[in-house]
Design goal:
With 548 residues, this protein is an alpha+beta fold. Helices cover 38% and strands 20% of the residues. The chain contains 18 helices and 21 strands. It has helices at 2-29, 48-59, 66-78, 90-101, 128-132, 155-162, 219-232, 250-258, 304-314, 366-370, 372-378, 425-444, 446-449, 455-462, 467-476, 500-523, 525-532, 537-547, and strands spanning 86-88, 103-106, 109-114, 117-123, 139-143, 146-147, 169-175, 183-188, 190-193, 197-202, 207-212, 237-241, 266-272, 275-281, 292-297, 319-322, 330-336, 342-351, 395-397, 403-405, 414-415. A hairpin with a 7-residue loop joins β7 and β8 (183-188). It starts with a helix and ends with a helix.
């Protein structure tokens, strides 16, 4: 896009100059009351863009690529509308749609780079790699006969090599612990699911927890599967975690809200200049219409997440816990083009059941709009609810008498500030390398770790391994890869001195994070979240709140 923008900036003054000249000429020639569309040789005003492009193509001093001009012009036009109307070039559209479609085409692995080598963290159940026998801990050294280990290849490049059309073949050679020779596999690519529900598990004997990372066409089915499993385990209270969930497909959020509300209750409605009011109401066939309910949100919860949270709050169905959500209340319609590109055009606003629009203002420009979270931080909003102010003109009342506000996200019923009590300068320095240590520890001790199938049992084992001391030595010895300085082509090593005071303040958090990352490497999300829960102040508050 940067090249296109550069070319557009070169031609923009010329285009504007031509437009100005044409405008002056028309002003001189035409009688004051004449209709331009009736004058021979004068193009209608709504065809001005085509006219300018044609003039450039016929008369410009050098040869030009009209398609490149168009590619540069479309984003410039959409920037005059709203922050969420966007153009997506053909080369980016497939990837942009993957998270919404709930799948991509590839070999079905999750990986990380360990000392410049592709390390398989896990294989997707039922995917082509698992079916052929690839395993966690395998290291990919060759892809299609090209050496990829030790070449400084980025994650993006790795995905580009391993993804591809369904039915196509990628050849890999792997190094497996216990084998002297490399193992070769011809993997036939297939559709690989992308799960939008990270985990569903019981946090105690009667409270279930479901984490949704985005809303795709598969989200509702994934959610219902998790909900039914938890109900079978005796769940009577539920926590739905929407923190960090930036939205996605609205229909799945509506279907999930339907599981909690009684027949006829309004979930959401949309309206636009050319879109009549369209309502979604509960059918009365929900799986969890009664029972205590909590929704967790934060400043990154947006769009479909806010629809779900707003429906629960405005119908007095449950309690919203966390921090104020992002504030995106615009509905986009996907519009595909013949060349494989597409546009997402805002066609309506959505409104919560009390009639509030939670879209935050964008009249001051898109930069201020997207910098809003930084501004909230500077105002102290992440630490104190009293720092958050809403206009009284945007005040609404729920049927149960609760006061809610529009015009800037969903304000939780119970505000939980960012917890900085165990954050020290030492923690901030070592935090980027905690996962590196966890990954190397996992690789070194995989045989001992993989016999554990439950997070609780694995954590009991890890508690006896002196992980914090091992990390401190790992960090002090400089056995980690830091960000590369500008112009550097090799891993940059630095030194972080051990800080006893910092460890006293942050040791518990660091130790828990180490265990959580190791558990993720072995058990995926079902291992990670139950361990991370110990340092998740918002979730811990929600569990205590439901217990009371």
């Amino acid at each position: 896009m940067s090249n296109n923008n550069t070319k557009w900036s070169i031609f923009l003054p010329l285009i504007l100059a031509i437009a100005l000249v044409v405008g002056i000429m028309v002003g001189i020639i035409l009688p004051r009351k004449s209709n331009p569309s009736q004058i021979p040789g004068i193009r209608p005003r709504n065809d001005k863009l085509s006219t300018i492009l044609n003039i450039i193509e016929r008369n410009y001093v050098d040869s030009v690529n009209n398609s490149e001009l168009v590619e540069a012009a479309i984003p410039a036009i959409l920037k005059k509308l709203d922050p969420h109307s966007v153009y997506i070039p053909a080369k980016d559209l497939v990837r942009a749609n993957e998270s919404l479609q709930g799948n991509f085409e590839g070999i079905g692995i999750s990986f990380n780079m360990l000392t410049d080598t592709i390390l398989i963290i896990s294989t997707i159940p039922g995917g082509p790699s698992e079916k052929l026998g690839l395993q966690s801990g395998d290291k990919i050294l060759y892809v299609n006969d090209s050496l990829v280990a030790g070449k400084g290849i980025s994650d993006e490049d790795v995905m580009g090599m391993l993804k591809g059309p369904k039915g196509s073949v990628v050849r890999v050679k792997i190094l497996r612990k216990g084998y002297n020779d490399l193992l070769s596999f011809n993997i036939i690519r297939d559709k690989i699911p992308i799960y939008s529900v990270d985990v569903a598990y019981m946090v105690n004997e009667n409270t279930g927890y479901i984490k949704i990372n985005n809303f795709a066409i598969t989200t509702f089915d994934e959610f219902m599967k998790g909900l039914k499993e938890l109900r079978s385990k005796g769940m009577t209270k539920l926590i739905v975690d929407l923190r960090g969930n930036s939205g996605g497909i609205m229909e799945d959020a509506v279907q999930i809200a339907n599981q909690f509300l009684k027949q006829g209750q309004l979930i959401v409605y949309t309206m636009g200049r050319n879109q009549p009011r369209n309502e979604a109401r509960a059918t009365g066939k929900g799986e969890f219409e009664s029972g205590d309910l909590v929704i967790l949100i934060d400043e990154w919860s947006a769009s479909a997440s806010e629809i779900l949270a707003g429906a629960i709050q405005d119908n007095d169905r449950g309690t919203i816990i966390g921090r104020r959500s992002f504030g995106k209340g615009l509905v986009q319609e996907p519009i595909p083009f013949a060349d494989g590109s597409g546009m997402r055009l805002t066609i309506a606003r959505y409104y919560t059941p009390t009639g509030r629009s939670i879209q935050k203002p964008y009249s001051e420009g898109f930069k201020d709009y997207f910098d809003d979270l930084n501004s909230r931080y500077d105002r102290g909003e992440f630490g104190e609810s009293d720092s958050i102010h809403f206009s009284e003109s945007l005040r609404f009342t729920t049927p149960g008498g609760r006061t809610v506000y529009g015009g800037g996200g969903i304000m939780p019923d119970k505000f939980i500030p960012v917890d900085t009590s165990e954050i020290s300068p030492y923690f901030l320095m070592v935090r980027p390398y905690i996962y590196q240590f966890a990954l190397k520890y996992t690789e070194k001790n995989r045989e001992a770790l993989k016999k554990y199938t439950e997070a609780g049992e694995l954590e009991k084992y890890l508690d006896k391994q002196g992980l914090l001391d091992q990390l401190v030595k790992f960090i002090a010895a400089g056995n980690f890869r830091s960000a590369q300085p500008a112009g550097s082509t090799s891993p940059y090593e630095t030194t972080i001195k051990t800080d006893p005071e910092g460890l006293k303040t942050s040791g518990r958090v660091i130790h828990t994070q180490i265990k959580a990352y190791i558990a993720r490497n072995i058990l995926d999300s079902k291992g990670f979240y139950p361990v991370w829960q110990q340092i998740d102040t918002t979730l811990k508050y929600a569990i205590k709140y439901l217990g009371n």
